[in-house]
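Run log, item B.
One chain of 641 residues. Sequence copied directly from the ordering sheet:
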Amino acid sequence: MLKENELVGVVVIYRKEAIAFNDRQVEVVQSFAAQAVIAIENARLLNELRESLQQQTATADVLKIISSSPGELEPIFQAILENATRICEAKFGTLFRFDGSAFRVAAGVGTPPQLAEFERRRGPFRPELGSRLERVVGTKQVVHIADDAAENVPSPPTRLAGARSIVAVPMVKDDVLIGAIAVYRQEVRPFTDKEIALLANFAAQAVIAIENARLLGELRESLQQQTATADVLKVISRSTFDLKAVLNTLVESAARLCEAEQAVISRPKGASYYFEASYGLSPEFAEFVANHPAQIDRSSGTGRAYLERKIVHVPDVLTDPEYTYAARGKVGGFRSLLCVPLVREGTPIGSIGLARSSMRPFTDRQIELVVTFADQAVIAIENVRLFDEIQDKSRQLAEASQHKSQFLANMSHELRTPLNAIIGVSEMLREDAEALKQDTEPLDRVLGAGRHLLALINDILDLSKIEAGRMELQLETFPLAPLIADVVKTIEPLAAKNANQVAVKCDGAIGTLHADQMRLRQALLNLMSNANKFTERGGIAIAARQGQEDGRDWITVVVADTGIGMTPEQMGKLFQEFSQADASTTRKYGGTGLGLAISKRFCQMMGGDIAVESKPGRGSTFTIRLPRIVEAKEAAVARQG
């Protein structure tokens, strides 16, 4: 029986008598032999088809479980092992995980009770020298034992479960052993190459499942960390100055994400430290800590973090020779400890500590996460510190401003009384000098200087009242056009001295205005005086118009000149008290720098404002904008502000 010139069998027929078979009979037997070859080939192909179908079905089942349970390895391992033992006709099987030093059982199928109990008691183990798993570790290759009972030292599956033929297939990722699949037969029947290849395929699927679970775990962990970080930042932004709320959120998030039972944030105080925020502390431990302040020394993890200014990781506080404050661990019920210092500009300002009740060290990723939380705690503490400093400085400035205003008000009153007397006497002397036809020029200079000084004192008094919140507006209804005409009439003699032309354009429809007439006149006079002072042989224009915005009537008064103008930098400090454009301007034109600041404050008190536009050498334009009817409540709010 030949198949492609290869002998696959023989058909033999016999006769009891010596009669030769004729050619026809030989041809018939040859035909039957050919049919037998076809039948054998069909059976072989059918068996291969069935095996292939079994393997594909098993692979599909495993892939289905991998896709439906990406993060759960136990059902995947169980499915892989069940299919492997069934298709390879093994009696039982075990899937091991390897961590680089020890194996542990991750799944088992059909394991006899005596062997299962042995594996449970043994736990993680290092493979014995010369055992099949030790050979897998050394070679990362398949280890196939035809009869383990014949080995010098039979393995536990042979001694306890009667295993004979054994095959162990490594699970390798990036040339690193991460596990192995072992299947056992209780009779001496070595595994075929196809069966071993199938086991290798199942091992590859197990590696894929482990990698998927690892990636998914990292993704979930990263998402949890990002969510926790976002939650903390959200609390920091919403409770910027509520340090307790921020730190409580930090310790709770750190404990939850790092699988710690307890978490605390401590702050140093002299030679000891105290807990600022905590999570998971028992009432007994909290009371113990309150009554037994810990010293900043090497007897505790937190103390070391303060001293060394670096991460302190204690795997077991009960076995650490330097951890002499063991009572804290006993009362708190913790064993593994992690402390990360909160450092600002090289100085420790606190520490975040996590503890576990069992001896289970923290991973590198968990330590990195706690470092992130420590950075956020530093930010929160620094925000509160800066806010407190600002609040303290603000209180100091407010007190200083109050004292300054009170001083200016008192001094203004003290100076104004004798100054009014000097002006009054000078006016009387001037009248007498005129009557006697004597020279009045010296008296005019005295009167001019006195009136200028009185105006300055009045400005200082107004500013002190505004800053002290004691400035009262006298609201009344008055026509705007006559007020503007009066201001122009006052400024015209001064404009004539500088050879300036004054132009007025007042909308006749404006009518009346309900505001503080005296303060508005003072502001307009100040703007017109400045326009004339900084303009020579040019023009000064004042225009008023009425408009509407958001259903409310507004009055706009514009004072423009063709004078020296200002730079953007000069305009930036234009409305500051006691400030002028620059020193050269002060020397040439004089002034105290109070007029514009006071005028702006007056307009703001009436619900409006003053704006300015200017370019060097092209003049300046000041715009007063006020509501046509100033409400009393606006003046009250402005006064309180």
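Observations after the first pass:
- The radius of gyration is 49 Å.
- The chain has a mean pLDDT of 83.
Flagged for discussion on Thursday.
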